[in-house]
Sequence to fold (666 residues):
Amino acid sequence: MLRNLLFSISLILSASAQAAVWTEVNDWSATYENRFAEWVRSEWRVDFFSRKYLPNGQNNPYYGLRVDCADTVYSMRIIFAYENRLPFVAQDPTASGKTISNKMSRWDKENEITRVRNFLWFIYETMSTRSLPNDTYPIAISRDTIRSGALMATTKKNHHSWTVKEILPIGVPHLVFNSVVGSNSGYGLQERQSWPNPDWVFETDFTPAGNAGFRYWRPASYINKPVWEVPGYSEEQYRIPLNKWVRYVQNRLALRQETDNQLITRLMKTTCEGLTGRVIAVNDGLGYLKKNSRCMDYATYDTYSTPNRDRRVFDDFMSLRRSYREILQINGGNQLSADLVNQLNKIFPAIQKSVATEAAQMAVQGQTASSVCVTEYLPGQSMDLAEFKRRLFLGLISNNPHDDGSYRWGELRGPSQRARSCQSWDPWSPDLNQE
Amino acid sequence: MEPIKLKTWILWALVLFGLGLLTDYYFLHLLFHEKQNALNGAKIVSAESSQNSSNPALSDESFLGAPESSESSPEDSNKDNFLSALQNCAPEIAAQTVGTPEGLVEYLQKSVGVKKEDVSLENYHLTLPNGSLRRIHVIVADNTNSSSKKELRFFKLDAEGYPERLPLKGNETLLSLLALGTVTKHEARSQFLLKDDSSLALEMHDQKVFELQYNNHGKVLSCRFKDCLCQ
Fold:
């Protein structure tokens, strides 16, 4: 009888334990934060949600989750917490003072991994970039604080966020992130090993209240508390002049200096990814246009237009240009390889002149031995990074999804007849007045 | 009479413990769940509405089994250093006999003047005529290239008080959702750029200052109610 009784009680207890999304048995500590950082550095990859199988041959339990930028950030923390039986607590963004945690029992009839996936979906439809400030705090600038597992956010205006996979030894962040377009087109994430433009990150509010810059996760006991009371809260990022922000932060985070060749190669790679990634985004829009000839409504237009993407590529070109100019001023480029100098001179043929003058004077760039990142942008048509830069800086590249491929890629100057006759929203054009 | 054996004591202790768990399971997991499902369902029982709306168990703030709530109230913090912190961060304003956070906000809006105001987040807590609870969450949309497009999210509350998103048809407006019930609480986060190029981040709950950060040209006054810090 005693045995039967014990069995019945254990059944009741197990039913009760299943109520939570997962049962936490550990607590966050410095050791677990270090393990989290190591896990992000080694496991947080662009194929985290897109690979069907794990390296050990087992099914990937997270395969097929579609995430946007804020979802990516929350997923990083939640999945580690789940896999290590740690609590996950966040502020309920719909009601001040309330929390959301792994203790919720909404899916208690499901098996554990289904509960975890449901919890992630619940987070995706409840949280946003606006909820991130509730759950994180701005951090000081050092390798102890800005490290794997941290995140970067923009102000409300640009509503974007990135996870920090790693701070490279040269002091540059390796960011893993996603965008809405990315979440529509597949399960893969995106990555970059370069700085986002701080003018864009902190646009309109370079103060602590803007909630932009590097941030880290609040301890559960500081959820719903004033952010300035969180241990480690720092306003240091907002005290650096914006035009020196990247240089200052990178120097503080660097373990060693990057050579000129490494710097230029890295920035060129990021810019090239801007071009190749744009091909996929534009093709999505052209595919829609082929099937639907009528004017797009706002939501459709917004999905297939590319103003933010084009601005980010422009910013990456500007970052490359500024770095090349600085190198020339410091050492005349004598540390750069001859091949790299030729490639740079093809992209920036009048580097000593203003951006606007160079754009106006730049000739059409054919493909030569100095071409870099030659990309097929439409069937049978390709261009290199230099020609893309020429078209982008001249305002030939169209972000309007009513335009067909030849306008989207700047073979013809838009707007096209269809673009003129349909409503458009949120245009962007390059600002050539910056240096 | 034979003395009661240890085994029997343990057996009875386990029986009582098991009964306790079963009682807990019945009331909190089964009975309460059904009650909340009925309340959050679409069926409207108008006859009970007036009674339900006055039932404290249905209030968003005292929800039985609701997720842990740690929202502070002015009474929670005895600290009131508003005036000294304001004196440190903005002595010119402290000299204007501004005595409360609400007074500071009014002074900044009316006397300094607002160049630009931006509401980044709003939460409306609603009670429907049948007594069930809803929340409207208004944020700047993430899934857009626009910097100002707003997104409406509509939630009911599950048995534990967690938000559960409800699908919208797409033609709803804030006003049409508000018309579904009575607003019991309103939370709003705003940013103000003032005419002297100082800035104010403000969170108001029911027209009262919950939290503010006033950036007075580099000196930042941060307050939760009247518990303030000047940095």
Notes: Confidence is low (pLDDT under 50) at residues 32-66 of chain B. The first helix of chain B runs from residue 6 to 40. The beta strands of chain B are 114-127, 133-140, 150-157, 163-166, 182-194, 199-205, 208-216, 219-224, 227-230.
